[in-house]
Amino acid sequence: MKATWEKIDKNVVSIDVEVEAEKVTVALDQAFKKVVQKVNVPGFRKGKVPRGIFESRFGVESLYQDAIDILLPDAYSEAVKETNLQPVDRPEVDVEQFAKGETFKFKAKVIVRPEVQLGEYKGLEVPAADVTVGDEEVSAELERLQQRHAELAVVDEGPAENGDIAVIDFDGYVDGEAFEGGKSEGHSLELGSGSFIPGFEEQVVGMQIGDFKDVEVTFPEEYHAENLAGKQAVFKVKLHELKRKSLPALDDEFAKDVSEFDTLEEYKQDLVVKLKENKEKAAEQDRENAIVAKAAEAAEVDIPEPMIVTEVDFMIRDFENRLRMQGMNMELYYQFSGQDESVLREQMRSDAEKRVRNNLVLSAIAKAEGIEATEEDVTEELETLSKAYNRPAEELRTIFTENGNIDSLKEDVELRKTIKFLLDNSKTA
User: Fold this and answer.
1) Which of 98, 124, 276, 325 is the most exposed place for a label (fewest CB within 10 A)?
2) What is the percentage of the chain residues whose pLDDT exceeds 90?
3) CB atoms < 10 A from the CB of 405, how many?
4) Beta strand segments in 191-257, E
5) From the CB of residue 147, how many other CB atoms can be counted at a distance below 10 Å?
């Protein structure tokens, strides 16, 4: 096989490929075996028509498309390897020649990974972080723990307050007409959580058990249901029940309940240590983000649109997985947030572009500095994953290899080594 290429536009190349006639013959044989199973010829059982009779009746040309479909994927992949190109999108293929006894010629136009013009990346300044832990931070952590261990108590009387769990019935109307999804009974709503349409929860605050109220709201302009976007709505609400959090006292008993310590003072001291460790980790992450951002800003790269779209796709899938772990799904999220997928994708686009730019620049730095993921690095990474997932490292290696993800693992290790290189060669501001 022969493959040559030329650049025809920014990040776009054209690959000319010529496949040997022998491979065309093999592909036609495979195509015949596939097609003959589907044709009916009088006097022959299905699948038993001789090749000569098939070609005289239907023409050898009837096999061409199937043969092309058989040959093209492997030929294109081989051409990409031979030319050392890195496509980032599906190619546009133009078949120039295909016939029995002749070579197979095609042209593939494809968007490739862009070249990066690196700027300064050594000696960059990153700010030092303050990792001291103040009393107010310890108090905030204790308050958070109080909230987590709070008990819900039924409120017999008095107005609903922010933070209460309100059990309500509601029935929504737009222009006097009920709309789909606007009705529910016995719904538990945490007031102040922001999970309902803006303005709804605020109007439930102050209601008392047994109260009826018309709650008037306006749907967001970019609400996922177009028939409701920007519309004024009235929800007829009845408050059935209120539950309020009862916070435990901050004392030695509380410390015993939530930790291995006997006194609140001992627990506070341990919190200081843990909060400092967390701040140190966060500070290191901030330093990494800052150094990568500076290196990326100094570089020049024109990012192809398909790379951004692919990254947004990945972010959407990741977001969906995290929602699922919280017991939600995308449909519920769109309903509660008043968004749809197009709005979410647009919100993610900026971060996706930054991620792609950062990874391209880090890869370029790694290449310039000869930074690679060694076999020892990969083994160490697999050992780390083994502890995290409680599975043997060699089993994980097999899974990564069989799924075709071992190269992605190596890339992740290489990027982290490159970030460490940048930090090791940076200055503290």
Assistant:
1) 325
2) 72
3) 13
4) 212-218, 232-246
5) 12
Beta-strand runs (E) in 122-211: 125-126, 151-155, 165-174, 177-190
Rounded to whole angstroms, the Cα distance separating 153 from 146 reads 15
HEC secondary structure over 54-94: HHHHHCHHHHHHHHHHHHHHHHHHHHHHHHCCCECCCCEEE
What is the mean pLDDT of the segment spanning 258-285? 94
Return the number of other C-beta atoms located less than 10 Å from residue 373's C-beta. 20
In tens, the pLDDT along 274-298 reads: 999 999 999 999 999 999 999 999 9
Q: What is the pLDDT of residues 65-87, one digit of tens each?
A: 999 999 999 999 999 999 999 99
**Is 250 exposed, middle or buried, given 0-12, 13-18 or 19+ CB atoms closer than 10 A?**
middle
Beta-carbon contacts of residue 296 (< 8 Å; ≥ 6 apart): 354, 357, 358, 361
Distance separating the N- and C-terminal Cα atoms of the chain: 56
Query: In angstroms, what CA-CA distances link 317 with 308, 343, 349, 359, 424?
Result: 14, 15, 14, 19, 34
CA distances to 106, 188, 236 from 181, rounded to whole Å, are 53, 16, 14
Residue type, 286: D
219 alpha carbon, distance to own chain's centre: 28
Helices (H) and strands (E) in the chain, counts: 13, 11
- In degrees and rounded to multiples of 5, residue 125 shows phi and psi of -90, 135
Query: Which tokens is 124 given?
Result: 């960059």
b/e per residue 315-350 (b: at least 16 CB within 10 A):
bbeeeeeeeeeeeeeeeebbeebbbbeebbbeebee
Domains of the chain: 2-111 (3.30.70.1050), 151-246 (3.10.50.40), 262-428 (1.10.3120.10)
Which residues face 232 on adjacent strands? 218
Task: State mean pLDDT over 413-428.
Answer: 93
Token digits of residue 27: 């592909």
> Please, are residues 291 and 419 in contact by the beta-carbon 8 Å criterion?
yes
| Cα angle: 334, vertex 312, 225; to 5 degrees | 20
